[in-house]
Fold each of these.
Amino acid sequence: MRIIPFIAAAMFAAPAVADHHSQGGHPADHVSQERLEADIDSLVGFGTRHTLSSQTDPKRGIGAARKWGEDEFRKASAACGNCLEIVLPERMVQGRRIPEPTRLVNVVAIQRGTERPNEVVIVQGHIDSRATDAFDFTSDAPGANDDASGTALVIEAARVLSKKTYPTTIVYALLSGEEQGLYGGRLMADYAAEQGWDVKAVLNNDIVGGSCGSDGYCDAEHIRVFSEGPRADLTDDIRAQQRRNGGENDSPSRNLSRWLDNLADETADGLNIRQIWRTDRMGRGGDQIPFLEKGYPAIRFSVAVEDYEHQHQDLRVEDGITYGDTADEMDFAYLTRATQLNVRAVQTLARTPMPPSVEAKAAVRTSTELSWNAVDGATSYIIWQRRPDQSYWHSEPVLTVGAEALAPDEFSMTATTAAESDAYTIVATDESFIVELTAIRGDDWIFGVSSCSSDGHCSPASSAVPAGAFAPIPQEEGDSE
């Protein structure tokens, strides 16, 4: 059944986002390929950035690389009137690929939101590198694509996005210890939890600067986005609810991936997203995983085609094949477009409210009731639907429900025509919304709701399924994670 869209309240124009400088246009338009190339050269110039390499040598090793990254963040902060807070979370770590206790440090720049500073969008890449042997911290390991590309992307995003202010906080993170076992990602996820942040999205960029694979196949038009299906933080009870009621394909990260795909389609000459519906590449991992384990929505950007001869390899020529992750094997035009996509995504996410937490009631009835609490910063909400066997939300929303024009007390709203009044009823207060979709049998549909700001920026959909909310699942003693 087609539900006729009904706009319950107009979306009011908001003042323009403030500029620190007179730089006009979208921040993505100011991404510089020349700066990205120079940053890659700087990072490769440290010889190795292995986590176990020197932390005190001023020119070589992980310590010098981290200091360089910190300095670049400080330069960006100086250019925006000291709008970035630089923090260096650290801990001592030891594990399977770290045989001796080692100091692990992340380099983080925080751009505080002007309205809802506790809402956070994180864009990150890992600064460490490795050679063939994961324990080899002395050989050159340039790590140009893996992952100087992600590091350069994050720094360039900080440079261009910090020229403006946003309602919510943006965090730019350079992570250490990824190649040794996702240590920097775990440290950053723990730091986010310790700060009490409401993490809206984590965009992990790992290997985002090449367009050709080991077999010669090239794809410069797509970038892969990896997203988990069932959430990593499911409890036994919610896992059982999903088995009965669905939701395996509606994790917050999966909906973030869908949202990113739509966003990418809005730029004619930008990269197209190829959604990969698994947590990461087969048998491998990345720094988005520690965030997923804590219940934070997180995805991984990675090139459409990987080049395994120039990844995790000692520098050498063998049987006529050149090995090693060097800058001459990269596609800097591709990295520029990947950076522009991230900048567009981060800016939009920093303007949107948090997605709502939505509940659906449809058991033993011919209608479906959707309910959610009002979201801070939202002036309207969009309801989406799709069949359970469909991959994507319908391009046309079911309803747009306004918030600003509603009465302060409980308020019942019906449409002005017979067709619309037969379709739905809305009951709203200052704190909550209840929408009943008449003659829509919930067994046959998945529903989601997006929150929208007054200037028309809308969040990813939050699905009305068990564990569909963009928030960690409360864990009780005895729960499985």
Amino acid sequence: MTKPLELQLDRTKKTPLADQICMGITAAIESGVLTSGARLPSWVDLAVQLGVARGTVRAAYDKLSAAQLIVASRATGTRVTERPRLSSRRDPAPEAGSFMEMYQEMTTGPAIFQMGVPAKETFPAKLLARIRAHAIRVEASAPALYPDPRGELELRREIAAYLAIARGIECSPSQVLVTGGFGGGLGLVLRVLGLEGRKAWFEEPGFPFTRRGLELAQLSPVPVPVDSEGIDVDYGLRNAPDAGLAVVTPGQQAPLGTTLSLSRRLRLLEWASLEEAWVIEDDYLSELQLTGRAAPALASVDRAGRVIHIGSFSKTISPTLRLGFVLVPQALVSRFAEVAACLAPPPGPAVQLATAEFIAEGHYLRHLRRTKRAYAAQRDALLQQLEKSANGIEVSTAGLAILHRFTDGISDISVVRETLPFGLAPAPLSVWYSSPGSAQQGLLLGIATCPQQHVARSCDRLLEIIYRVRSR
């Protein structure tokens, strides 16, 4: 058993408690909640959990054993017997066209061209497993106390030091809060700012999960176009000068990969200062700039304390960590700590301490250097293969993706859905736009998940599918 049995006992019924326990476990087995081989609690542990006599649970287990539903062994404990499953309990599929359907399609994998996840080939699995195993032992042997809701101090110190070196931000560990990935950081920020009912500038195109997050927080996203200099600040000033928030990806715009120009950075910060608005800086892929040095973080030039910087380790280490951080202006530190303590605690200490050690011993920076070299080689190989396989295909580099725009009206979503059975998962460009009517069509081909040995075959298959969809 990986979680306690959720049995409901009604002491007002005439049915004996042992029979109620027996019926509850039987229903769990037949519905598929308890699968063949699943381990049950000992009758002593279940008696404590349910608040009944041990003999009551033992009698229920005896009945289940007589019915050949469970089998007891000193070596393996009490388990569900191997038997045909009468029914299977499955989560219902998300509604067609819903956000969750899009979410599942965009996060499917592992697959070639998938965006948002790092390369498996460069991941230091053995090293990180050793460090995490040590961190788990430390956590298990530590006193049973509630951890710091802001995050472990060791990790916050390492993040502050890293931001000073790599992102040009001067900050103290007290300004850093550890979160459950980027989504956890965004949720924490929106709770603290309390901007319900206000407008929020949002890049067009921009990350659809962030846009939906703003809507769920009861803000009104205002699409602001992106061009070769990043978000068009003057457009935002003309159309929504009263917005209370702007969400930007200034380092490498998601998904187009452009860097926010200095003049627009200063204009954006001037607007935020004069209007007392806030700017959320999503530091998307800034550590993984493949050409030249990464642009300084927007927070590094913020002198009015209006920028809230969010980063994560999902793209650089692994999304399975669900580990991110928020860097907040000094004036908001106490408020953020309160909300984190009551509403948004960070992940457990073990994963934080392991990540802190990974950074402190220099492994993180070495990992980034190796990863960038590998990604640059994969990008070049992918571009060369696309030029070789397709006559006149127009592609461009967009951060850690290759962007292929469609100009003939074919549906990028249709293409993507036909690629999935072949182990390919490019992202459709159109879902990054807020309005389907004005969305541009195209494919984003993730570089990180396209090893060089698979490039030729994957490109050929992809172009074949595009041609088939186009010729219908």
Amino acid sequence: MIRLLIDTNIVIDLLAKREEFYTEAATLFSLADKNLITLTVSSLTFANTNYILSKLKTEKEARTILRRFKVLVQTLALDDKVTELALNDDNFPDFEDGLQYYSAIENEIDIIITRNQKDFKNSRIPVMSAKEYLARK
């Protein structure tokens, strides 16, 4: 089964119901719910998403949303090797993108799904938007 790393922006599109991007994100997560694809996120995504959701909702509501979301994804650890790789790769000036990328590499992910494809221009694995990925299905 194909394994996708979902970047934080796509997760927030879904959970914060960002109008312009929600439908594509929801469709992607629906495929995971039907066990047609495997979705992964880095553990950093949970921290960042909790921070954003807590600005939009109460802390309790944000945590409830994340608990429900967790059943749809596998969480990839950010370990010493991933951190070291991200810190030392000048191709990723945005450290968070480097962490996401190396989480994907170290866990043999097939595709990275993001709305910030330009931030992954030197990726060794395919990077596409949710819309592009869904158009391939």
